[in-house]
């Protein structure tokens, strides 16, 4: 598994799922979820997300042996960059104030995905900039 111990606190799992974030005007905007960890997520959006701004986000964690988990959380934008060839923006967001149940669901998902020997392992923990390049 590829991790960056000096920069990453938790392993990331690459996902290509639909997500939504809610603006300050309560407008729901579609985004693509690139990866998720216990501490945050990466989104691909059609507009730049301002660094430092907090958004409410929602997405589904797939669960092959039961019900999928819908996650609702607040997250602060830590970095954002333009992906020129995709005409999109990749942003890294850090969760804020996760409740225990949501954190537990995320921990279980990441643990299950990073410890499984399933096909596609080479894409787990991929940097979102590498994924969209």
Short précis:
It is built from two helices and six strands. It is an alpha+beta fold and 133 residues long.
Structure description:
The chain is α+β, with helices and mostly antiparallel strands. The protein has one domain: predicted glycosyltransferase like domains (Thrombin, subunit H, Beta Barrel), CATH 2.40.10. The protein is 16% helix and 43% strand. It is built from two helices and six strands, in the order E-E-E-E-E-E-H-H. It has helices at 100-115, 128-132, and strands at 13-22, 28-36, 40-45, 54-61, 69-83, 88-96. The chain has a six-stranded antiparallel barrel. A hairpin with a 7-residue loop joins strand 4 and strand 5. The longest helix has 16 residues, at 100-115. It starts with 12 loop residues before the first strand and ends with a helix. Residues 1-6 and 117-129 have low confidence and may be disordered.
